[in-house]
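User: Predict the structure for this protein chain, please.
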Amino acid sequence: MSRLRFIALTTALLCAFGTADARPGGGASLGSRGSHTWSAPPRTSITPGWSRPMDRSMTPAPSPNTFGAPNPAFNTPRPTVTPPLSNYGARPSFASRHPFMTGLAGGFLGAGLFGMLSGHGFFGGFGGGTSFFGFLLQALLLGWLIMFLIRRFSKTTRTAPNTTAFTSSSNSGPYTPTNDDYTAFQQLLLDVQSAWSAQNMRALSNRTTPEMAGYFNEQLSELASRGARNIVSNVQFQRGDLSEAWRENGLTYATVAMRYSLTDVTTDSFGNVIDGSSTELQTVTELWTFVRADGRGNWILSAIQQGG
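Assistant: Here is the predicted structure, written as structure tokens:
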């Protein structure tokens, strides 16, 4: 087979497969956004219409119920479990607040009942005095002891610290990116495009999650198996707009609508252009989601979604 015929056949095959949007991500929506993966990112001034849902993600998608309708367990506010009305503003019983005092009083009462049952009167179970004044003295001492212990235990209860008021997690909720964060997002856009064109998987792996690195490696391998190579150049960041940013499970996420221009060209193994143009600029609008360890570490790319 002559060289020219081989080139023509290769070009035809590549065109048949289609190589449009061969830039990183291939024009698809890929990756994960934590618990927001299958939720549409909030609209921005750059993406006022829609954003393509994930085509591929390692995060399991919500499954429909048996009737094909969306599973109500997903994207549905959890019902508020209201405690019984009697629990609101009700003070716990003395027995539940002072089990030791309850047991002590029970012991005294048991001793008194034992005295009555044994024929020695109510105070007979305590032993000691047998006269009326002896009984009275024991009753006064008993009353004083009970009041002293009640005051002592009540004071302890009032001064005990409340350890249940701070049980909510402090690392979840909205996040406000800083100027340094936006600078890092813009730099990552340029670095990922550069590493992609150089087919530098190590550089891509250092700037993306393992999931995204796997998708990029798969795309580059597919191109290589067909004797093709995609090169993006002249990448110019035009505008960015925050869609949402939040914290969850020790991670911080930020989804940013990004508009940029670039030249996107695919060549065969001999350097012949088989798709795209090395001189014509394309304008792309995508939502890139970045993630980092909460409060530390570097931002890396975790998802790309196509914006409308």
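The chain has a mean pLDDT of 75.
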